[in-house]
Amino acid sequence: MLERLNQAMEYIERHLDREIEMVELTRIALTSEYHFRRLFSALAGMPLSEYVRRRRLTLAGAEVLAGERTLLEIAVRYGYGSGEAFARAFRAVHGVGPGAARRNGAVLNSQPRMSFRLIVEGSSSMRYRVVDKEEFRLVGRKARVPLVHEGMNPAIVEFLRGIPEETRQRLAALSDQEPGGLLNVSAGLGENREEGAELDYYCGVVTGAETPEDMDELVVPAGTWAVFENSGEFPLSVQYLWRDVFTQWFPSNPYRSRPGPEMLQTVLSEDGTRADSQLWIPVERTGG
């Protein structure tokens, strides 16, 4: 898997000054566009589109300083339809406009080329199982929130704090099948995982009971799920669980992620310092 990802990275590098075809990129990586974008974001720490933008503007910066092409020629070469659009993007990455950079020989920022390699750390193993689940309903409270790649998501924190304890108890009483208990669920994001993209975030339960009038409902089609479990210090153990699924488990197993809600159950200790977690990720087998 990592070898295929690195071949895809080579393709990106060769096409920074022309259109990057996602069909060709996913053909090289032998995976779906959804999984490629999801896996890349987890491994690289940024969305694919952001990496491509930074790499293009890194090369464009070198050409601006070299002075061999006009600024408009450089803009068109790296996919910008106007000098104004190029100048805005250039300034966002380098902190200075291309004209000023050329005149003054400014110090620019550089996004290095990426490649992926496997680093074995320690000897811990991941506990997981694969579950085929029939169509089910998720019932609870829903909010539309922006995607945040680093740190706490203020919109999610505010949403969860606004749910009364009485509502949480009512929901917990409805839980009657796996995954059990109160869940935090991300859904509806699709392939666009850029910072600020919106998703539906639920606090709810999986249930066969009738949906209360004051609750939201999500019908989830039948499919396969990889279920991961861990225990440890909170919130680090939960953060590490998400990270390890995409940076260690997927590259080592014949599965890829597929569209669908990602569900997390977290049971805190009495003092709130430790947690037992169960993470459900929608998956499908690869051809290998």
Question: What does this entry look like structurally?
Answer:
- Helix 3 packs across helix 10, helix 4 crosses helix 6 (83-94) and helix 4 (48-66) packs parallel to helix 7.
- 39% of the residues lie in helices and 25% in strands.
- The longest helix is centred in the N-terminal third of the chain and has 19 residues, at 48-66.
- Strand 8 (262-268) and strand 9 form a beta hairpin.
- Strands 1, 2, 3, 4, 5, 6, 7, 8 and 9 form a 9-stranded antiparallel beta sheet that branches.
- By secondary structure, it is of the alpha+beta class.
- The model has no long low-confidence stretch (mean pLDDT 89).
- 24% of the residues are buried.
- The protein has 10 helices and 9 strands.
What keywords describe this structure?
single chain; 288 residues; alpha+beta; 9-stranded antiparallel beta sheet; 9 strands
The percent range for helix content is 25-40%
Structural class: alpha+beta
Which stretches are poorly predicted, pLDDT < 50 over at least 5 residues?
none
What's the helix count? 10
Strand content: 15-25%
- In round numbers, the mean pLDDT is 89
Number of strands: 9
SSE ordering? HHHHHHHEEHHEEEEHEEE
Question: Main beta sheet: strand number and arrangement?
Answer: 9 strands, antiparallel
Shape field: elongated
How far do the termini sit from each other?
10 Å
Rg of Cα set: 22 Å
